[in-house]
Amino acid sequence: MDDYSDEQLVARYLKGEEKALETLIAKYLKPVYRFVFRYFGNAAEAEDVVQEVFLRVWRNIKKFNPRKSRFANPRERRQKSFKVWIFAIAKNTSLDFLKKKKAAPFSDFDNEDDTNAITDSLVDPAPLASDIFERKDLADILESALEQLPVGPRSVIVLHHDGGLTFQEIADASGESLNTVKSRYRRSLLSLREILMHLLE
């Protein structure tokens, strides 16, 4: 089963092969858990949310359509991968749980303009080296810094680095434009660097 693509596994599951869904869950369980954990920082809550994520996947997998697009114009239609679909569910489920807890200041990012003449015009805001996400000695410091970011900017960083999604996939998952996602990512990294500098002083 490991040789099949995600979309092939979905098709096989819909034809009655239960093992295909088990293979998909095994593949995405850890990445989805890591992504969700960044929202909550609490293993018990993250486990509850992940359970809900895969419950929603199971309930809605018949609706998954790899060719479905949010764009009305057929010329702009692009394929939506299973990875994008499942991380969109993980993000939405996490936000639903956070809204119930009323723990996130959603007004900080729900309606923001997502443009910044200063940071967007920088040639290279020197994003964090990707290996910072892999170094064990910085893991706790990075975790603490990420927790200080608002949920929206944090999710772009986590989807890209932990989820392995491209900026286009994040745009497809969030329903935002590619430029908006790239802009938010750059500004989020700048904020994260400032927080890390303070924490490392």
Please describe what this structure looks like.
It is globular, with a radius of gyration of 18 Å. It is built from nine helices and no strands. The chain has helices spanning 6-14, 18-40, 43-60, 82-101, 117-120, 139-147, 151-161, 167-174, 178-200. The protein has two domains: 1-104, RNA polymerase sigma factor, region 2, helix turn helix motif (Rna Polymerase Sigma Factor, Chain: A); 105-201, Winged helix-like DNA-binding domain superfamily/Winged helix DNA-binding domain (Arc Repressor Mutant, subunit A). Helix 2 (18-40) crosses helix 4 (82-101) and helix 8 crosses helix 9 (178-200). The N and C termini lie far apart (49 Å). Helix content is 62%, strand content 0%. The protein has 201 residues and is mostly helical.
What features would you highlight for this structure?
Arc Repressor Mutant, subunit A; Rna Polymerase Sigma Factor, Chain: A; 201 residues; 9 helices
Query: What is the H/E order?
Result: HHHHHHHHH
Give the N-terminus to C-terminus distance in angstroms: 49 Å
Number of strands: 0
Structural class: mainly alpha
* Helical residue percent band: 55-70%
What CATH architecture of the largest domain would you give? Orthogonal Bundle
Output the CATH class name of the largest domain. Answer: Mainly Alpha
Quickly count the helices.
Answer: 9
Radius of gyration: 18 Å
Tell me the CATH topology of the largest domain.
Rna Polymerase Sigma Factor, Chain: A
Question: What portion of the residues fall into strands of 2 or more residues?
Answer: under 5%
**Average pLDDT taken over every residue:** 76
Q: What's the overall geometry? A: globular
Major sheet, described briefly?
none
